[in-house]
Amino acid sequence: IKLHQAAMKISILGTGLMGAALTEGLINASHDVIVYNRTIAKTEPLSALGAKVAATPVEAITASDATIIMLSDGVALREMLLNDVTRVLLKGKKILNGSTTTYSEIVEIACVVAEYGGDLAEMTIMVSPDPLRNKQGRFMIGCKTIDESYWTEILLSIGESVNRLGEVGEASKAEAPMIFASIFIPVTVAYAAAVAAKMNMPQELSERYINMAIPTAEYVLPNMLARDYSKCMATVDSYASAVTTAIKTAESVGVPTKILKDIQDLFRSAAERGFSQKDGSSIFEVLFEPNANDK
């Protein structure tokens, strides 16, 4: 597939960890990037790199050839796109959702966007923030056949592979099991690390055995052992949103949700302790030093 030769005007709505990394990747690929975030301070580092800052989502969308939305969940996506001000300006606009949604949420929102003359596609990002910055992105997309080349060209400018799974909703379906897996990994590691620490197991032994038992522990265990959560792959708030989406998905297919609701309480407890914007591995603190308010 031939890549775009000319820079495009692309807006990013939502500049959290993944939105910021996506913005950096697009700037590095020579696109003109417009960013919007409800907390404007989060756009300042991106402005320093050359991004233009929009005051509102409408300003960003209207000024762009393409818009990519990177919010927490389907509720936030609906509120941003389908409010009375924004939805009437969607005609002719191409929008790509990178927010975590359920299948039914994204299909329903796409239908409403279409009623107002816009086109909503979806993507699942298969890598962490750093590869996005360095043109190593991998993506799954759900979109109309006619829009496949459009979004593929844009995403290949910052990545290595784009796989269209079908119409809108199919990427959310494929992402669903990954959401469940990603939620349980830090919880499993945190429980193992908290128990080992409380039993006064030598750290080098607990690290060895936990890594042996849980192959992906290497991504979260070092933070827990150091009790330093500043190096962030996914925030506590983003995990909490992912759990909410997982609960909705589980309910829609008749899978029990009690354990998910307990996990949700765990991440909420971490947020209440001030870790909301720290790495999700900080749930270790709730388990290692529980207090009376922890459920």
UniProtKB/TrEMBL annotation:
It holds the Pfam family NAD_binding_2. Keywords: Oxidoreductase. InterPro entries: 6-PGluconate_DH-like_C_sf, 6PGD_dom2, 6PGDH_NADP-bd, HIBADH-related, HIBADH-related_NP60_sf, NAD(P)-bd_dom_sf. It comes from the Eukaryota. One of its GO terms (molecular function) is NADP binding. Residues 9-163 form the 6-phosphogluconate dehydrogenase NADP-binding domain. Belongs to the HIBADH-related family. NP60 subfamily. This is 6-phosphogluconate dehydrogenase NADP-binding domain-containing protein.
